[in-house]
Amino acid sequence: MTTYERDARTLELPWPFTGREDELELVRRSSVAGRQGVVVTGPAGIGKTRLITEAVRGTDCVRVTGTPETSALPFAAFAHLLSDGVSLPRAVRHLSGVRLLVVDDAHLLDEASAALVHQLAVHGRTRLVVAATATGTAPVPGAVARLWTGELLTHLALEPLPYDETAALLAGGGLEPLTVRRLHRVCRGDLRLLRDLLGALRESGPLSRVPDTGEWAWRGPLPLTATVRDRIAPLLDRQGPQERDTLERLAFAEPLPLHLDDDLDLAALERLETDGLVHVDDRGAVRLAHPLHGPALRASAGRLRARRLARTPEQCAPALQDEQERLVERIEQLDVREVPAPVGEWLAAGDLPVPAGYAAVRARYSWLRGELREAAAWAREGLRAAPGDASCRTELARAAAEWGEGAVVRGDGGLAHYGAVRPGDPERVAGRLDGVLAQHAEALVRGDGPALDRAAEALAARGLLLFAAEAHAHAARAHRDPRAARTSRTRAVALARRCQGARTRALSGLVLGELTARQRQIVGLAAAGLSNRQIAEQLTLSVRTVGNHLYSAYTRLGANDRTALPWLVTQPDRQSA
After folding, report:
1. What residues contact residue 351 under an 8 Å CB cut-off, 6+ apart?
2. DSSP 402
3. For site-directed labelling of 523, which of 23, 63, 552, 553 has its Cα 20 to 30 A away?
4. What is the rounded average pLDDT for all residues in the chain?
């Protein structure tokens, strides 16, 4: 079992291979006998090398890697496999006996090595697993690009690691939810940058304890590491003084409405937009295109310049109010899909007071999205500024109730009636709901599995992920077809995992269907309070085997330890709001 030192300077975070199940399976399927192979492309730092390493783990393979220093030397990547002065045809014949060839950083291959990889793909006797950084600005050797454009190999365009999987990667590190969200936002799936920032935060010590939780929070400026400077080089290298000035003004004031700042150099802004460095939304607000750029530019500005450009909390009050009103409007419409809300995030990241009214709205918005730990974190931010605020205390209690750690908190308006639907008692509120909530209630009254699945999809489309998970859970119990029930249960579990520890009545016990028979047996005993040794003795297993089964079960259940198991394997006699 891994342990973590709870000191901010030595906080160790695990780096297991997390998520990417579908991508991992695709690479494995493409590299087995009878297949020619796969090429994985994507931006730098998003985990291509780790993915292909996991996919070929335990197999007999030969590895080669491209490097920038040897890109002009013929067959440099294959120097350990080929003799000097070898020709391309001879190199192809020599390597045709290799059953599986793994090529990393293929975009850095010299031309001869790239041609050799292409010819091996054409001949088809060697299975290939290739990883290459391919973006709009990074050149790729033509022979490598033709591996997928010519459809010689299966092509997997790897997307950046999404927030849910980033949070799973950081689980166990003791970081509070707003810090996890902030790290994901500035890194945008770049795992190399994420590791770099975490190392800097541990070493420089800006992590601080969150009262009442024991978690660590990152508040304050972005560490200007070498990796960060490398990522913002395109901004720092801008030649025009107007362009650099525009970038820095945006960094300290984004989003900046065009109509409120006539001093902006529109010509410079147009050039920056053309180069993909700024973005103008439908409302006419201008912001930097990458979430890393603003914090990095603010951290790199001199003290005097930062003092001149920086906003005070009072100066950003109108923008914060506008942000709050837009969130309230979306809540009233029950449409809580993710929207930019940078002003409040800037206040929280800068360790500045977050008004309680705004914090309560952010907490409610996060709760509706199923982001329960973030809802609690926003409520705590509001209570820092106003310790007695009733709205923030209500939102904190609401999040705790969804974890099974507090009393039920009734919702507002239609959500109060919906509180009877969620645990499965819709009859007493029949006719009092409308829209997607009524769709869920009416299907539940009829016990209509397919209609419940459709209601779940409608809820998920609006960002109401926890409610959608519960609707799929209801469908799993209503379906008469076992296959349909399994599909609904799988969808419910997948959504519930994104809801940050939700343990509601509708979801309790459902996830056991995701476990093997042995895992269910061990989890049931652990939930009853037996230790690993006691379970091992009762089932005639080794303690290590029990621990491995529990670890796998925790991963599938979305639990951190056995304290969560009773809520996951039993039906509590309570109703969730």
Report:
1. 219, 220
2. H
3. 23
4. 85
The set of residues, in sequence order, having a beta carbon less than 8 Å from that of 170 and lying 6+ positions away, is 13, 180, 183
Cα gap 111→117, rounded to integer Å: 10
The Cα 52–Cα 67 span in angstroms is 18
What pLDDT digit, counting tens, does each position of 32-44 carry? Answer: 766 789 999 998 8
Query: For residue 471, which of 456, 483, 459 has the smallest C-alpha distance?
Result: 456
pLDDT recorded at residue 39: 95
Distance CA(143)–CA(89), nearest Å, equals 15
Residues 6+ apart with CB under 8 A from 37: 30, 31, 121, 127, 128, 129, 130, 153, 154
The residue whose two tokens read 């080929």 is: 82
C-alpha distances out from residue 489 to 312, 333, 396, 507, Å:
49, 28, 29, 10
Q: How far, in Å, CA of 554 to CA of 546, rounded? A: 12
d(CA 383, CA 88): 69
The string of pLDDT tens digits covering residues 208-234 is: 888 888 899 999 899 999 889 888 888
- CA nearest to 245, candidates 227, 283, 272: 272
Nearest to residue 497, comparing CAs of 431, 557, 416, 570?
Answer: 557
Q: Which helix (H) or strand (E) holds 94?
A: helix 88-95
Element (H, E) at 182: helix 177-187
Per-residue DSSP letter, 10:
G
Q: Please tell me whether residue 497 adopts helix, strand or coil conformation.
A: helix
Q: Note whether 423 and 506 are within 8 A (CB).
A: yes
Nearest to 511 by CA among 445, 501, 23, 405: 501
Burial class (CB in 10 A: 0-12, 13-18, 19+), 355: buried
Q: How far is CA 427 from CA 430, 433, 440, 577, in A?
A: 5, 12, 12, 16
Q: Are 432 and 413 in contact (CB under 8 A)?
A: no
Q: What angle do CA 112, 117, 118 make, to 5 degrees?
A: 95
| Residue 353: partners with Cβ closer than 8 Å, 6 or more residues away | 313, 347, 384, 385
Close Cβ partners of 318 (under 8 Å, ≥ 6 residues apart): none
pLDDT 10s digits, 324-351: 999 999 999 999 999 888 889 999 998 8
User: What's the whole-number mean pLDDT along residues 283-292?
Assistant: 84
Q: Which pair of structure tokens corresponds to residue 347?
A: 């206040």
Close Cβ partners of 145 (under 8 Å, ≥ 6 residues apart)? 134
